[in-house]
Amino acid sequence: MKRYMLKNNFRGLKKGTQFFLIVESEFIGVKEFVLGTTDLSTRISINEAELYKNFIQLNRIE
C-alpha cells in the first residue's frame, strides 16, 4: 500500500497530513487518484498533476 504526505497546504488540509492511496485509475490517458487520511476521516480525489505538485510518497507498506 502506498503512503503519501502533503508537502503544501491543500484544499483545507494541513501540510504534513498523511494519506493512503485507496484507488488509482486511468481512463484515456487521464489518471485519477483517491487518497484517504490515515484516520479514515477524509477522502480526496485528485489528478496526477495535483498528486506530484502537493504530495510526496513515503515508504510503501506491504
Structure, explained:
The chain has a 5-stranded antiparallel β-sheet. The chain contains 1 helix and 5 strands, in the order E-E-E-E-H-E. Helix content is 11%, strand content 48%. The chain is mainly beta and 62 residues long. The model has no long low-confidence stretch (mean pLDDT 92). Strand 2 and strand 3 (30-37) form a beta hairpin.
Structure, briefly:
It is built from 1 helix and 5 strands. It is mainly beta and 62 residues long.
- Uncertain runs with pLDDT below 50, 5 residues or more? none
Cα-to-Cα separation, first versus last residue = 6 Å
Spatial ordering of strands, largest sheet: 4-3-2-1-5
The percentage of residues in β strands lies in: over 45%
Helical fraction: 10-25%
Shape: globular
Radius of gyration: 11 Å
- The helix/strand series, from N terminus to C terminus, equals EEEEHE
How would you characterize the largest beta sheet?
A: 5 strands, antiparallel
Structural category is mainly beta
* Tally of contiguous helical segments: 1
The count of β-strands is 5
Q: What do the pLDDT scores average to?
A: 92
List the helices and strands and how they pair.
Blueprint: E1 3-6, E2 18-27, E3 30-37, E4 43-47, H1 48-54, E5 55-57
Antiparallel strand pairs: 1-2, 1-5, 2-3, 3-4
Task: List the defining traits of the structure above.
1 helix, mainly beta, 11% helix, 62 residues, globular
